[in-house]
Amino acid sequence: MPEAYVRENTAMTFHLLDAVRAEAPQAVVVVAASSELYGPPAQLPVDETAPLRPQNPYAVSKAAADLLAGFFADAHGLRVVRARAFNHAGPGQEPIYAIASFARQVAAGVLEGQQQVRVVTGNPDARRDYTDVRDVVRAYRALAESAEPGAYNVCSGRPASAAELLAALGRVTGVEIEHVVDPALRRANEVMEVRGSSARLHAATGWEPEIPLDQTLADTVAWWTEEIRSGRAPDRVHE
Question: Which member of 119, 125, 152, 191 has the greatest number of CB atoms within 10 A?
Fold first, then answer.
């Protein structure tokens, strides 16, 4: 639904910021943008000076929201902070995202008593910059409390590939994993590595990621195990 992404994300951001301008000009607004707005990185790590090159309608909508946020800060003097979050993961995330999908497959396989748990992924070598969602939330709070208007990357700076994630999942769960690559899940024109710099965020707030990737993976598997065992996710076990 490309038109809906562009129309709704942009319109909602505009109406929120315009309401703040009219009714609560002293309020702090944290606009959750996305690293998607950078597009394929020209250099690594990506910092906030990188040009915006969104490559899909969702990314275009997030770039538009980010630009609107900058406009309201500049034109109306509002304290609007733009948080450009890279990939984040953790308990509670839907399995349309990589770590949630892999953790769900591991949890389901273990509950089914598989001796070797089969996990299906797309490109095994593409690397993404993952941060635990609980650290991301801390970053948003820190930005709201102490940052000046502007753009701030929220990222760990420590990328991992699907192959590396599965190796870590095997390590933290103690199970043997059979890694199956599905060609249908490979993206056309795959960006092979995305890695950001959170130096500006750290300088402004002192924020650093605290939760290691292994804990994110273990906690996510534990969450999916409980969801499946309790029957809250029966339709997602055999996807």
Answer: 152
Residue ranges in the chain modelled with pLDDT below 50: 236-239
Q: Which two tokens stand for residue 220?
A: 């996510």
Domains and CATH numbers, the chain: 2-236 (3.40.50.720)
Q: What is the pLDDT of residues 24-74, one digit of tens each?
A: 999 999 999 999 999 999 999 999 999 999 999 999 999 999 999 999 999
- H-assigned helices in 55-161: 57-76, 98-111, 133-146
Q: Tokens 């710099």 appear where?
A: 197
Using alpha carbons only, give the angle 109, 111, 115 rounded to the nearest 5 degrees. Answer: 50
- Please choose, from the candidates 119, 132, 12, the residue with its C-alpha nearest in 3D space to the C-alpha of residue 64: 12
- And the tokens for 143? 């930005």
Query: Partners of 181 in the beta sheet?
Result: 121
| DSSP code for 125 | S
Q: What tokens does 178 get?
A: 């059979």
Residue 148 φ then ψ, to 5°: -80, 160
Report d(CA 136, CA 168) in Å as an integer. Answer: 21
Q: How many CB atoms lie within 10 A of CB 20?
A: 19
Give the span between the Cα atoms of 112 and 114, in whole angstroms.
6
